[in-house]
Amino acid sequence: MNQQHQLRQGQFIPLKWVKGLILLLLLSIVACQSSQQGSQTVETSGETRDETNLKLQNATLEQSNAEGEILWKIQVDEAKYSPDRKTANLTAVKGNIFEDGKVVLQVKSDYGVIQKDGAEIFLKENVVAVDPRNKAVLRSEEVEWQPKASLLTVRKNVRGSHPQLEASANEGKYNTREQKLELNGKIKATSEQQRLKLETEHLIWEVAKQTVIGDRPLKMIKFQDKTITDRLVANKARVLLDKKQIIVKENIEYKSLKPPLQIATNEIIWHYQTRQVYSSEPVQLIQYAQNITITGNEGHVNLAENMAYLKGGVKGNSQMNDSKLYANNLTWNIVNQTIEADGNVIYEQNQNPKFNLTGEKAVGTLVDNNIVVTNSDRQQRVVTEIFPE
Q1: Which residues contact 133 (CB under 8 A, 6 or more apart)?
Q2: Residue from 95, 156, 155 nearest 130 by CA
Q3: Of 61, 185, 205, 263, which is least surrounded by CB within 10 A?
Q4: By the 8 A CB rule, do 39 and 85 touch?
Q5: 21 phi and psi, to 5 degrees?
Q6: Cβ within 8 Å of residue 89, ≥6 positions away
Q7: Which neighbouring-strand residues pair with 107?
């Protein structure tokens, strides 16, 4: 037998061999897990140890599931393992989180902790997580990643950004499989390109679908440059960022500052970039500068052109001179205060003298009682009723 490879009884193993065997044993302990938990592999350019701790420098850590699919792979300046090798404290973390073999998050932070044999990762201080599929960026001071749930829990001063929207909140959860961010607490969202701001307490941002859902009372502001043009409060809203539309529901109060107009209804579709408001529900328009109120069963308001169109059971009312107008349909120039009405027109003036006019069409202005009622059929006369005191 070759004497160079044979150890006789009483001989000692060289010290450098002992160190190598101990290092191999320690790394094997770190890497080995049950078949249910998968496995963790370690690559490192240096290590130090004492009787209870293992410390790795410039290490690459990788976690796989029981099927051999990679879950995450991170690089760290230092990884310090607990005595049972189930927890590791990390510094200068940078790496990727995988799902179905593809990168779903690129993460980095100043510090981190691996727990439960790699089943959970905590990242702390200056945390940045980027979803390369949709270009969404999450920033926070603390996050928790749970591979089995495909869930990134974001805590402490959450900021989310995307080419379409920026949002901040107290905390949030990002589901990587659904590409959905749920925000909670003191939420402020801004779309600079589309000049829109939103405030609420709970929001769901479906990033891939370009949809933002608010299911709690909320406030929205539309602005042009630094000037506010529209304000809206409601109970619920669905923002379709790609279509530049908002479907708003329940207890809606919409206020346009230019032209001065309030809209009250139970549901609207707001094309906020072009300032178009549509409602298929009963709607009330109030020109608060001159106390003109017009209601209808449905309506379309073009605020860019200062026009309103109402249909079905239309009623116009001027509180300044106590006059009323009823019709099937009505077109209203909000700035000039001119109206055009058609279909079963009734005009009532309650000032002296009191009278009614009925016909098929009406044009004029409600604010100064300058209304002309006509019939489309010239053979049919306009009916006038005068009520003397």
Answers
A1: 104, 179, 208
A2: 95
A3: 185
A4: no
A5: -65, -40
A6: 79, 80, 111, 112, 113
A7: 95, 129
Structure tokens at 306: 């200062």
Measured CA to CA, the distance from residue 87 to residue 158 in angstroms comes to 26
Residue at token pair 């929205």: 220
Distances (CA, A) of 26 to 21, 52, 81, 191: 9, 11, 10, 52
pLDDT at 289: 82
At 16, which helix (H) or strand (E)? Answer: helix 15-31
Confidence of residue 68 (pLDDT cuts 50, 70, 90): confident
User: Smallest Cα–Cα separation from 239: which of 187, 172, 305, 176?
Assistant: 187
- In whole angstroms, give the CA distance from residue 197 to residue 6: 79
Residue with the two structure tokens 């949709």 = 134
Q: Measuring CA to CA, which residue among 112, 107, 52 is closest to residue 84? A: 52
Query: Are the C-beta atoms of residues 133 and 207 closer than 8 Å to each other?
Result: no
Structure tokens at 353: 């003298």
Other CB atoms within 10 A of residue 378 CB = 7
Check residue 300 and report its DSSP letter.
E
For residue 173, what are the CA distances in angstroms to 182, 193, 305, 356? 5, 25, 42, 62
Three-class secondary structure of residue 66 per DSSP: coil
Beta bridge partners of 336: none
Question: How far is it, in rounded angstroms, from Cα 366 to Cα 322?
Answer: 9
CA 349 from centroid of its chain's CA atoms: 49
- Mean pLDDT for the stretch of residues 123-148: 95
Which residue, among 31, 33, 55, has the nearest Cα to 45 in the 3D structure?
55
Going by C-beta distance under 8 Å and a sequence separation of 6 or more, which residues neighbour residue 134?
Answer: 162, 179, 207, 208
What would the pLDDT profile of 18-56 be if each residue is shown by its tens digit? 344 344 444 444 444 444 456 666 666 555 555 466 889
